Amino acid sequence: MAALAEPRATAARELAAAMRGAAKVPGTGLPEDEAALVGLLSAGWVDDPTAAWEQALAARAPDLKTWGATWADRSQLRGEGGATWASEAAARAWLASGAAGTLGTEHPDAASWNAVMKSEAGAPGAGLTAWARARQALGAGDVTTAAKEYATLAQALPAWRSGPWTPVLVLDGAFPGEMAADAELVRAAADPVTPAVELHGWSHRRDSAEMMWRSGVTAVPRAATPEQSAAVWDAAAAYRFESLKWLAIGGAFPSAARDALVAAEKGAGLSSAPSPGVTGLRAGLDSSAVISFRRLPGMVEVLYLTPNGGKLVKLKPQTADAMQTWTKAISAGDSAVASGDRLRTAVLDSSQDILTGLGKYLVVGPAPFGAFAIDALPEQADGLRFLADIRSVSRYQDFDAILASPPPIADEFQQTLVALCATPGEADTIRRTFPQAMVLEGPEAKVAAWKASAGNARFLHIGDFPAGPSGGWQLADGELTLGDLAATPLMARLAYLGGVAEVGHLQARMVAARRAGLYDFLVGAPALDPNFHDRTVLHFWEGGNRRYNASRSFYEARATTLREFDASNRPVNWVRYLVAGKP
pTM of the full predicted structure? Predict the structure, then answer.
């Protein structure tokens, strides 16, 4: 495992520990590290698994050799597992086409697969049969039924079954390549927006769950007991192990392991809210427009949804690459006006027919698209004004967050602010705006102090501390991890989460803060000019003291600071702030 880079090595160790087998996995002869390796391969944590495959193939355990070969090249699996893969291929081809038929008895698992195809009660294929019905409905031009079936598919494969819990069975969902084919079918429909809302919503839930796993945040609710949490881990590990073994060497489908996982999830309170659907999502938009990015093999798809319209657009791969390159350049101080003008044309101008008249954009999508510097796009080719001058942009990790209700305000006039400050100047800024604030600075800025004080605060401020290994904040006594943040029940009505962080970390902080209960906040990193940054944060909290929300506080703070500095409107000074909350 030493050859795996963090955080994948951490994930491997956690997965191995979760298998609860000490030095052995129960029922196998595999040492702990080899079992964790198998889990990594099945979960897809290894971006380039070549070295892991080589380690698996070199192992002495026969099963591990077979599994290593399985994941090294599924299409040319040799040995006992071949028949299982052949039956799987036949089953998937049937489901993809929607045609009737059954597998021949020469396949050892024909009974299991045929049960899936017939949708028998209790069959382990609710997600895949819903997928087949969705494709069939699209072929018949029935987008309403297709959308309902995609929603069923999403419910059958809950978002928390990602990261180290990613199922290894195709019975539990569709492969990315197949979902890309679905995207083509949806875009060709008379009404592509209705089913696209379901597919984008499902993708965003899974992207958020995956981001949290990589940041060390568990999916198990805080209310679950340690025993309930451990039961879920145990059941997930057993299901993954048994299903991988079934795919590799055949035998009976591990229905008992699957049912045990479902029972453990229910016991721990893991539940998934139903999709809001296109009607529910539109009802929560007010006068805003959703701009939703979804990454698929070989492309990025953009869904534009407004209270009265919608559009589905496929971006060229080079446009998606240009978005990431441009965001990095603009964040480093490169004006890049020409590149920004081209991106505005590709990403926004082509949809002006539905965006015209809407001054608020809600951007949703995985890294790096969720942090795409859309508000730094030049309004015109000359770059004299930017989108931030004429639009408010907020960021969300999924559609559920857009529709979430704000937390109840226990005491509207209470001004309690808890602030962790990295510098004396930052502490002075907070005290000027909130004289009664609890300001923890230098050696007092500790993880323990956060855990003891943050939960009751009406306002929260985490300052410009260096980023820790998980993407959290490096405080006096260690890292305030994103797991710590997500595990702290928060009721603050406004917050600022600062500090140096990469774009991916900014989004992860946003998702962790929402998991903790924050509804309206600003995630930011220092600008190129520290004086500009200090003044921006000061004015942000002045707006908060006036009961402004995060969006109004930030955009007014930006405008005020620009006037104070009497300088050119350079996006590098404000582009790395992400507003998380209704504009």
Answer: 0.84
